[in-house]
């Protein structure tokens, strides 16, 4: 039988119609001889009813959850209506019923809520993906992807591909390496991003490129990071920073409107990098709640508190001190220390009295309250470390944790911000050299090119990140298009001439042949879908993700391979 409808499409307007349906048995109920069957597909549920005198009755009694069936019947009005589903006013009186496939009892429940562990869900991911909540994530992902594609095509961008097997140019995360059978001892690398290739499209004169690109990084995993991920990669010639940002804004506005019917107010606000660190302790601030950071050395240094001796002290006031119990404060202390701070101190104002870990050092209570603007029920949280950057970062992590723990952010709010005016370089103390804060193809501000060698720390980049609700969802820059400036960049990064030639010689060479000014941005599709579907873990919106320990439990990967394959690749392992 060819089905006529999906399982969310029938309603009172179809009463009396003969229909064919297919799907999975969500559940069955035998009520006084009448057998009710909830039939499920990716679109929804339709209730079937089989009467005792029906020739299909015996077949109906055999049905169990997750059997695959097809049914023919007549649409009738449902006696006991269900307002929670779109088909809740009708049911199908079955005239034909065929079992297409039986099913064993599943190791996880196919429902909205299931108590199975993440390990079990990932091992049986193909069953987990039958759950309506998981299907919604992936169907939304498809809608989001297509909306982004539509917008970029409308803006005259061309969709091109770039190679998966490329050259290892380690300057960021670790590469995934692929050994060559034809050239023993040599390796391809999987792309961390199509950065160089998309620039070469600009050299080739295509002007506007985009790609829904698979990317790979061998790095530690977390809730918003996987070993393989998807970027919406965008590059354009002859556009300024502002013009590229406008392209991305139009794309996001179109996508949010089409998929969620949500209006994004344009243009999206801009915040300098320095202000983001100063006020929020993060280059990806969550602006759905306040809690701005302040510096407190001018206030605290005269108190000569041993804990803060020769330290940078920053923090903020939280207006619900009673929520921060000793247990909570101990947990937050561990958090800031994990993020490279030395200590977390606090002062509470309760019943007009100061208490807390440094209260005994405060001789003039009234002056302290006035200077900190503390109000009844407030707590001042103070983070300290050896320098401004570490202190700001740890205080920013603390701010984010309190915002999440105490529900300060509206989960239905979307708060965008561009982070602009980035430094071009940062100094890596461990390796005693400058590194690119974004990547080594980012252009300096035009008026600061001459400072790249003599004062690298003062040079600002033509770089920009777009942030949503505390997550970086995209990063980009104007690229270096002059061979001499690219050469200078590599030299400041401390790369030897031979290394430059080996890793990037083709790009430096390409820039000599009339490369246009160009720039772009890569949007993180996985993070965008995660935020638009209001889930907390990126694994929910990736069909077949890895565990936090980087294993695919369903495919049992990584795994050993046959010795013959290793022999062909001329590979052996150290004992």
Automatic annotation (TrEMBL):
Q: How does it assemble?
A: Homodimer.
Ordered alphabetically, the record's keywords are:
Aminoacyl-tRNA synthetase, ATP-binding, Cytoplasm, Ligase, Nucleotide-binding, Protein biosynthesis
Q: Which reaction does it catalyse?
A: tRNA(Asp) + L-aspartate + ATP = L-aspartyl-tRNA(Asp) + AMP + diphosphate
- Function statement: Catalyzes the attachment of L-aspartate to tRNA(Asp) in a two-step reaction: L-aspartate is first activated by ATP to form Asp-AMP and then transferred to the acceptor end of tRNA(Asp).
- Chain ranges of the Aminoacyl-transfer RNA synthetases class-II family profile domain: 141-545
Q: What is the lineage of its organism?
A: Bacteria, Bacillati, Mycoplasmatota, Mollicutes, Acholeplasmatales
What's this protein's family per the entry?
Belongs to the class-II aminoacyl-tRNA synthetase family. Type 1 subfamily.
| Single GO term (MF) | ATP binding
Region of interest called Aspartate, as start-end residue ranges on this chain: 195-198
- One GO-annotated biological process of the protein: aspartyl-tRNA aminoacylation
According to its UniProt record, where is this protein mainly located? cytoplasm
Detail which positions bind ATP. Answer: 217-219, 226, 472, 524-527
Which SUPFAM superfamilies does the record cross-reference, listed alphabetically?
A: Class II aaRS and biotin synthetases (SSF55681), GAD domain-like (SSF55261), Nucleic acid-binding proteins (SSF50249)
Report the PANTHER family cross-referenced here. Answer: ASPARTATE--TRNA LIGASE, MITOCHONDRIAL (PTHR22594:SF5), ASPARTYL/LYSYL-TRNA SYNTHETASE (PTHR22594)
Q: What is this protein called?
A: Aspartate--tRNA ligase
Q: Does the keyword Nucleotide-binding apply?
A: yes
Task: State the coiled-coil residue ranges.
Answer: none
Pfam families with a match to the protein in the record: GAD, tRNA-synt_2, tRNA_anti-codon
Per its UniProt entry, what is the enzyme's top EC class, as one word?
ligase
Task: Give the subcellular location.
Answer: Cytoplasm
- List the EC numbers from the record: 6.1.1.12
